[in-house]
Amino acid sequence: MTAITIIAFDGTEYAIDAVNGSTVMENAIRNAVPGIEAECGGACACATCHVYVDDAWTNAVGKPEAMEEDMLDFAFDVRPNSRLSCQIKVRDALDGLVVRVPERQA
């Protein structure tokens, strides 16, 4: 299990033990994290699972691939640390990951 923390826009922290191979989005949905809508179900076909990766974790998470970058064009308040949580695969190297949910989804 990999520990991830998802911080909702209101500041509520959700400490989650995530199974490696799943996505941050899947874990957010399973744990009813508000603000993660995931309308496309994780197909990278919308921007409703947009999160901000904590600065300490941006290198470990990595940069978005081209398709994800295209979808981020539809997200609200995109920042350099923006990612779609459906595209962040949980793995041992992300143990302790912190992401924040934006004020709203696109």
Mean pLDDT: 97
Question: How far is the N terminus from the C terminus?
Answer: 31 Å
Report low-confidence residues grouped into runs of 5 or more. none
Biggest sheet statistics: 5 strands, mixed
- Which percent range fits the helix content? 10-25%
Order of helices and strands: EEHEHHEE
From the alpha carbons, calculate the radius of gyration and give it in angstroms: 12 Å
Structural class: alpha+beta
Task: Considering the chains and any ligands shown, give keywords for the structure.
106 residues, alpha+beta, 17% helix
Explain what this protein looks like in three dimensions.
The chain is 17% helix and 22% strand. It contains three helices and five strands, in the order E-E-H-E-H-H-E-E. The chain has a five-stranded mixed beta sheet with strand order 2-1-5-3-4. The protein is globular and about 30 Å long. The termini are far apart.
Q: Any chance you could write out the topology, listing elements then pairs?
A:
Elements (H helix, E strand, L loop, with lengths): L1 E6 L5 E6 L5 H7 L19 E4 L4 H4 L4 H7 L9 E3 L12 E4 L6
Parallel strand pairs: 1-5
Antiparallel strand pairs: 1-2, 3-4, 3-5
